[in-house]
C-alpha cells in the first residue's frame, strides 16, 4: 500500500546551526585576502569542509592545494580552520611563503594543551578520527607523545610509559556522547588518566548537537546540510538517529533530497553543520515547502554569540591600507 501523504506537514529548524565563529573567520579571511592582495590566493586544504564554500571561493580566485610545496615561492597561502602542524609552518618558511593562519582559535587551544603536556613529559591520548586534518595538525605538535584513539576498539591497543602521567585531549568536532563513552573506557584501563583543563569539543559542535537532539525527538526525518568530509555534520546525523529520528541524511544541496525520504512523513527536522552557509538551508526549506512542509518553526535550546577577530597578519595589512 502507498504511504499516505499527511495533510499537515511541519519543519523544525534547529538553532544554532550553520557557520560557527571559526568557520566565519576563515572564510572571511580568504575573501578579505582576495580583496586586499588580489587573486590568486592559495589555500592549503579546503578552508572549511564544505563543497559549496570551496567552489564559491575558487570562482573568486582562490586556489586550493593539498600541500604547501604546490604553492609558488613567495606567494600568499592561507592555512585552513583545521590547523596545521609545526612542520607545515616550517615548510612555508623555507619556501618564503607569506602565510595567513586561519586556524580556529579553539583548535589552537588544543595545540597549546598538547605542547604543554608534552613539555611535562605526559603521554597524550588524542581522541579523534584518523586522517582528519585537525588530528594531523594537533598530533604534529608532539608526535612522540601523542597516540590517536579512534573508536572504542583502539582503547585496548594503547601502550603507555607511565600511567600516572597520562592525559586525554580530543578533536573539536566529535560526538559529545561518544567521547564520554571512550573516556570512560580509557579510565577503566587507566584510572589515573587526567582530563583536559577545559572541553576540547568546541562550543559550536556541542550547541549544534544539543539543538539537533531537541528536533530529532519530534521528527521522523532529520536532514543535515553538510558535506561528506565534515566531521561535525556527520556527527549531527548520528546524534539525530540516536535521539529519536527514524532516519537522517546528510545533503550538500537541496537537490540531493529524495522524494521517497518524505513519503509518510509529517515532521522533518533540519539543521546544518558548522561549515554550512545559511543560503543552503534556505534552499532546503524552499524544496520542503514544495512538498507541503510549510509550517516552519525554529527550535532554539541554546543561545550563541561567539565571534573571533580575523588572523592578525591580515588585520595588520587591512589597518595599514
Ligand atoms: S567547529 Fe569549533 S573548532 Fe571548528 S572552526 Fe568551528 S568553532 Fe572552531
From TrEMBL:
Entry binding sites for dimethylallyl diphosphate: 49, 82, 132, 230-232, 275
Question: What does the note accompanying the cofactor annotation read?
Answer: Binds 1 [4Fe-4S] cluster per subunit.
UniProt keywords (A-Z) are: 4Fe-4S, Iron, Iron-sulfur, Isoprene biosynthesis, Metal-binding, Oxidoreductase
The record's annotation in InterPro entries points to: LytB/IspH (IPR003451)
Please name one Pfam family that this protein belongs to.
Answer: LYTB
- Biological pathway: Isoprenoid biosynthesis; isopentenyl diphosphate biosynthesis via DXP pathway; isopentenyl diphosphate from 1-deoxy-D-xylulose 5-phosphate: step 6/6; Isoprenoid biosynthesis; dimethylallyl diphosphate biosynthesis; dimethylallyl diphosphate from (2E)-4-hydroxy-3-methylbutenyl diphosphate: step 1/1
Active-site positions, per UniProt? 134
- EC main class here is oxidoreductase
> Where, in this chain's numbering, is [4Fe-4S] cluster bound?
20, 104, 202
Annotated catalysed reactions: dimethylallyl diphosphate + 2 oxidized [2Fe-2S]-[ferredoxin] + H2O = (2E)-4-hydroxy-3-methylbut-2-enyl diphosphate + 2 reduced [2Fe-2S]-[ferredoxin] + 2 H(+); isopentenyl diphosphate + 2 oxidized [2Fe-2S]-[ferredoxin] + H2O = (2E)-4-hydroxy-3-methylbut-2-enyl diphosphate + 2 reduced [2Fe-2S]-[ferredoxin] + 2 H(+)
- Tell me, what does this protein do in biology? Catalyzes the conversion of 1-hydroxy-2-methyl-2-(E)-butenyl 4-diphosphate (HMBPP) into a mixture of isopentenyl diphosphate (IPP) and dimethylallyl diphosphate (DMAPP). Acts in the terminal step of the DOXP/MEP pathway for isoprenoid precursor biosynthesis.
Per its record, how is this protein called by name?
4-hydroxy-3-methylbut-2-enyl diphosphate reductase
Gene that this polypeptide is encoded by: ispH
Amino acid at each position: 500500500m502507498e504511504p499516505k501523504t499527511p495533510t499537515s506537514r511541519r519543519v523544525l529548524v534547529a538553532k544554532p546551526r550553520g557557520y560557527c565563529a571559526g568557520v566565519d573567520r576563515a572564510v572571511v579571511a580568504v575573501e578579505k585576502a582576495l580583496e586586499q592582495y588580489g587573486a590568486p590566493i592559495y589555500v592549503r586544504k579546503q578552508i572549511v569542509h564544505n563543497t559549496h564554500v570551496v567552489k564559491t571561493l575558487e570562482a573568486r580566485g582562490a586556489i586550493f592545494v593539498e600541500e604547501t610545496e604546490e604553492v609558488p615561492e613567495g606567494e600568499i597561502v592561507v592555512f585552513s580552520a583545521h590547523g596545521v602542524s609545526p612542520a607545515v609552518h616550517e615548510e612555508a618558511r623555507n619556501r618564503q611563503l607569506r602565510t595567513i593562519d586561519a586556524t580556529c582559535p579553539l583548535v589552537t587551544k588544543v595545540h597549546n594543551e598538547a605542547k604543554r603536556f608534552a613539555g611535562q613529559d605526559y603521554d597524550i591520548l588524542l581522541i579523534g578520527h584518523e586522517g582528519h586534518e585537525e588530528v594531523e595538525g594537533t598530533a604534529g605538535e608532539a608526535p612522540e607523545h601523542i597516540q590517536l584513539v579512534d573508536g572504542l576498539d583502539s582503547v585496548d591497543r594503547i601502550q603507555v610509559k607511565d600511567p600516572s602521567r597520562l592525559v586525554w585531549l580530543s578533536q573539536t568536532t566529535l560526538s559529545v556522547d561518544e567521547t564520554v563513552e571512550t573516556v570512560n573506557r580509557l579510565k577503566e584501563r587507566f584510572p589515573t588518566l587526567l582530563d583536559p583543563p577545559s572541553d576540547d569539543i568546541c562550543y559550536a559542535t556541542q550547541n549544534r548537537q544539543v539543538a539537533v537532539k531537541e528536533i530529532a525527538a519530534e521528527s521522523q526525518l532529520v536532514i543535515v546540510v553538510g558535506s561528506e568530509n565534515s566531521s561535525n555534520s556527520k556527527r549531527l546525523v548520528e546524534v539525530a538517529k540516536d535521539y529519536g529520528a527514524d532516519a537522517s541524511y546528510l545533503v550538500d544541496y537541496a537537490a540531493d533530497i529524495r522524494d521517497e525520504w518524505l513519503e509518510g512523513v509529517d515532521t522533518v527536522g533540519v539543521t546544518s553543520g558548522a561549515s554550512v552557509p545559511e543560503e543552503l538551508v534556505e534552499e532546503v526549506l524552499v524544496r520542503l515547502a514544495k512538498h507541503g512542509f510549510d509550517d516552519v518553526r525554529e527550535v532554539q535550546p541554546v543561545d550563541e554569540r561567539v565571534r573571533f577577530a580575523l588572523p592578525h597578519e591580515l588585520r595588520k595589512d587591512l589597518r595599514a591600507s
